[in-house]
Design goal:
By secondary structure, the chain is an alpha+beta fold. The chain contains 8 helices and 13 strands. The chain has a single domain, classed as B-lactam Antibiotic, Isopenicillin N Synthase, Chain (Jelly Rolls, Sandwich). The protein is 37% helix and 22% strand. Helix 2 crosses helix 3. The longest helix has 30 residues. It starts with 6 loop residues before the first strand and ends in an 8-residue tail after the last helix. Bound molecules: fe (ii) ion. Fe (ii) ion binds next to loops. Keywords: Ethylene biosynthesis, Iron, Metal-binding, Oxidoreductase, Vitamin C. Its EC number is 1.14.17.4. GO terms for molecular function: 1-aminocyclopropane-1-carboxylate oxidase activity; L-ascorbic acid binding; metal ion binding.
């Protein structure tokens, strides 16, 4: 079993080594659900500024509140299974920004996070088209599939995973698959903790300076009719280091209708007579279920959506 985490150097997607890089990307999407991007076009200077201001914001605005939570979370000395060892807040960018409501963010931090979101949105658009190419879908298919009446949705969960005195009692973030489309993660380059499930084993997502870790959410599993899979992942709490995690979610718009791409269903059917195995539904209906069942297996969610599913178009 090859256990080396897939790393895609985006520079190689131009020029002579493109075919090999596309093959690496295809393998990562089909067999890992995760990959790490280098030379993705977002400048190291911008990433350094995002990191500096995020860590400063945690110290100034969030650390004290987390310490109060932390002293209560472990007070019984027993395993904690209903809460995570994380300090987090959410920045919405598309279709509507919530930045003006986040009163503790300074002007510099807002400006930098807005710029970072715009770059990540462009990167996600480009990645979706690379996935289309590998899947044999027309260019723009996946972006269009994510567009509800107001376009795709884009938001960022900013998290800190502070050092934990009893990591055997609590997870940084319990195991889950992501609900949405494609997720771009700027993670700490020194403090690890992210793990994904690969062939029944937890594998580390290695910290790498200025890289972006990408993973695929449940909606890409549905649209690709299971060719690509969303994969279980978690964050383990550690006794040392305060892990920074900035995870951006490029998701379908709330009223987007999500369903398996007919061409992929047909291809499968030609191979082994399989019909579409995934349902057709409105994304916000899936999210209503996900918020209740995030830390449970995804398969029952897909089954529940089938019970109320919209009919699947045949072409
Ligand atoms: Fe996640």
């Amino acid at each position: 079993m090859d256990c080396s985490f897939p790393v895609i150097n985006m520079e190689k997607l131009q020029g002579g080594e493109r075919e090999k890089a596309m093959e690496l990307l295809r393998d990562a999407c089909e067999n890992w659900g995760f990959f790490e991007l280098l030379n993705h076009g977002i400048s190291p200077e911008l990433m350094d500024e995002v990191e500096r201001l995020t860590k400063e914001h945690y110290r100034k605005c969030r650390e004290q509140k987390f310490k109060e939570f932390a002293s209560k979370a472990l007070e019984n000395g027993s395993e904690v299974t209903d809460v995570d060892w994380e300090s987090t807040f959410f920045l919405a960018d598309l279709p509507v920004s919530n930045m003006s409501e986040l009163v503790d963010m300074g002007a510099d931090y807002r400006k930098v996070m807005k710029e970072f979101a715009a770059k990540l949105e462009m990167l996600a658009d480009g990645l979706l088209d690379l996935l289309c190419e590998n899947l044999g879908l027309e260019k723009g298919y996946l972006k269009k599939a994510f567009c509800g009446s107001k376009g795709p949705s884009f938001g960022t969960k900013v998290s800190a995973y502070p050092p934990c005195p009893r990591p055997e009692l609590i997870k940084g973030l319990r195991a889950h698959t992501d609900a949405g489309g494609i997720i771009l993660l700027f993670q700490d380059d020194r403090v690890s903790g992210l793990q994904l499930l690969k062939d029944g084993q937890w594998v580390d997502g290695p910290p790498m300076r200025h890289s972006i870790v990408v993973n695929l959410g449940d909606q890409l599993e549905v649209i690709t009719n299971g060719k690509y899979k969303s994969v279980l992942h978690r964050v383990v709490a550690l006794t040392d280091g305060n892990r920074m995690s900035i995870a951006s979610f490029y998701n379908p718009g709330s009223d987007a209708v999500v369903f398996p791409a007919p061409t992929l269903v047909q291809k499968e059917a030609e191979k082994d007579d399989a019909a579409a195995v995934y349902p057709r539904f409105v994304f916000e209906d899936y999210m209503k279920l996900y918020v209740i069942q995030k830390f449970q297996a995804k398969e029952p969610r897909f089954e529940a959506m089938k019970a109320t599913a919209l009919p699947i178009p045949t072409s």
